[in-house]
Amino acid sequence: MGKKIAAFGEVMMRLQVPGYDLLSQAGTLVYSFSGTGVNVMSALARYGHDGYLVTRLPDNPLGDAAAANLRKLGVAQKFVVRGGSSIGMYFLENGFGARPSRVTYAHRLESSFNTAPDNVYDFAAIAGQLDAAHFCGITLAMNDSVRSQLLRFAEAVKARGGIVAFDCNYRPSLWGENGYGKAKPYYEKMLGLADIVMMNEKDAMHVLGMPAKAATREGQLEELIPEAASRYGIAAAAGTHRSVNGDNTHSLRGYLYKNGAFHYSDLLTFSVYDRIGAGDAYASGILHGELSGFAPERTVRYAAAAAMLAHTTTGDTPMASEREIERAMTQAAGDVER
């Protein structure tokens, strides 16, 4: 039986340069709508849950287009409000080889979501209708008003016995100078409220300022994540380690720390068509497993397979079905499915 889960976050317009061109080379852009909350709720809706978005869209044709996209993705709009006239955008240039992909944000702080009045959402009423809610460090980075809204919503969900999920998703470009110092108190508040957290050793070291003795990433992970889980009362912590290979393939391994033990996926190596949004696919797999009562070993394998498949489709939003993910977990792929 599916659960009712909502995400608090911004709907963004993605403007993508065709192929591997730079913005300075291209003459056209392809637009779509996305955002962490959009991506995770769309995936969970595809897995059989009721996925809602708590957000504010422009009250104009731009907002209408975004709302149409949410309907197409299966994201429920019961808690979407309309107002303002602007939407946040980002420009995507696909990387190739030694050149990484590049995201350039525009109009973030002027967007309808980021300028929403404090009283525009009835968080108590919304929280009373949910089993769980998802929050993101990208939203936490926006401004004081949005941070206050996010924390109030998380507190309302927690007060009504719901599950709080938080994806650290630290973005240096959004926090600015002395970003780690600015972010830490807000991250600590959210981690104290969260039951399920997407984080890795870098979040613990840089955002939380936790020292590590180990020299390797794996050693630092196994040293710091149990300490963070204990300190903040986190029931489950999950994330990935990724490496980019010389032949343009990527390798990814997922982890889930729960009940005092680490669980790992296999190391998956795959070609990359579109990397953006793969972390949201992994998060949606972890949430699906946790909400559905999967064994931890199955949850982490499911999430890693979902992330792998997300690299194979264009756009931010994970598009794989449960059946396709289960098939990828058996490593049966390559030929035409008939």
From TrEMBL:
The keyword Transferase applies. GO terms for molecular function: kinase activity. The keyword Kinase applies. It comes from the Bacteria. Keywords: Kinase, Transferase. Residues 3-318 form the Carbohydrate kinase PfkB domain. InterPro entries: Carb_kinase_PfkB-like, PfkB_dom, Ribokinase-like. It holds the Pfam family PfkB. Belongs to the carbohydrate kinase PfkB family. This is Sugar kinase. It comes from Cohnella hongkongensis.
